[in-house]
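Archive transcription. Copying these from loose printouts into the bound notebook so they stop getting lost. Printout 1 of 2:
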Amino acid sequence: MSIPVAVEVTEKGLFIPHEAYEGFGEIEIVRTHNSIVIQPKYKSREQIIQTLQETGLLLRQQQTLLPEGPVSPEERAELARKFSAGRPLSEIIIEEREERW
């Protein structure tokens, strides 16, 4: 959402009219390497879901594909072979915890 506003540079910093962010409620200011972002501090559940969907981190329910039928024994064996490579996750977690102590 973009709102055209007249931002002024003053001796104390930037002056941004309240109208530009009054609908945000409580705000937070995020500084990146090339910009400053003023955004609502607390986003609604719907906004969070929409953002996740737009970035591809969350699929809409109609986008999820369920298997059309049962997995064949050959496919099951192939998947078991692929996912059995490496060490158990529990061992990796235990090692990482020991390194922190």
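Printout 2 of 2:
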Amino acid sequence: MKSIIAMLMLASASIAFAQGVPTIDINPSCRAAAKGSAGMQQDYESCQKSELGAREILVQQWASFLAADRGSCYRLTTTGTPGTYTELLTCLEMKRDARKLPDGATIGQGIGGVR
């Protein structure tokens, strides 16, 4: 029974991702940023403005990201937290850009690629 419910939830989430950018409640994250809870303080309004800017980029580029990445990144950025549009966008860009790396490329070797 639980597996059927999980499959239905996954299917409905997949349909939602095909329709467009999911709605994320950015208020908890912006309140935390305004309090400095995340290690650095940011004005609440500037946080909101930044998040809405990230959402606008997502709206423009949503169809260009793979559906599997959209679902994976959404789950990753909202598991245990409401998430943010900035986190979602960053995840999607990283997945997209990682695919562009040449086969056998190594990441994190620093300048000069010492092997």
